[in-house]
Amino acid sequence: MKHHIENLTEKLLSRNIKPSYQRIKILEYLTDNCTHPTVDKIFCDLHKEIPTLSKTTIYNTLNLFLEANLVRVITIEDNETRYDIDTTNHGHFKCQNCGEIYDFEADIENIKVDGLNNFIINDKSLYFKGICGKCQSA
Length: 138
Known about the structure:
CATH superfamily of the largest domain: Winged helix-like DNA-binding domain superfamily/Winged helix DNA-binding domain
CATH class of the largest domain: Mainly Alpha
Number of strands: 5
Number of helices: 5
Radius of gyration: 17 Å
Structural class: alpha+beta
Mean pLDDT: 93
Distance between the termini: 29 Å
CATH topology of the largest domain: Arc Repressor Mutant, subunit A
CATH architecture of the largest domain: Orthogonal Bundle
Number of domains: 2
Oligomer: single chain
Low-confidence stretches: none
Largest sheet: 3 strands, mixed
Shape: globular
Strand order of the largest sheet: 4-3-5
């Protein structure tokens, strides 16, 4: 579903982010492609449309979006950083066969944890790995 540029511009302005063309296109990409993309994937897909786009611009834009809580980082694998437009607390499942990452509902706020009294928790992530239903059926 394509999102109107006006809505994306408003979303950026509401977070005090100047809505440049590149920022709007990156936000549009993340909104339209809820696939937890990497910087490389975003670059490859948008570079066709915006030949002047650099990976540095994507990194800087994503860092700006992170600070404004527009995206969250997913590090389900040590060697790759992915970005999720859904900033609500939920879990992620990565299929070890096809590599697809799926969102799932989880009551992360109420997980019982012992041994962290007097700790400040800044981030809560729940990652599962296994084989998805599609790969099991194949």
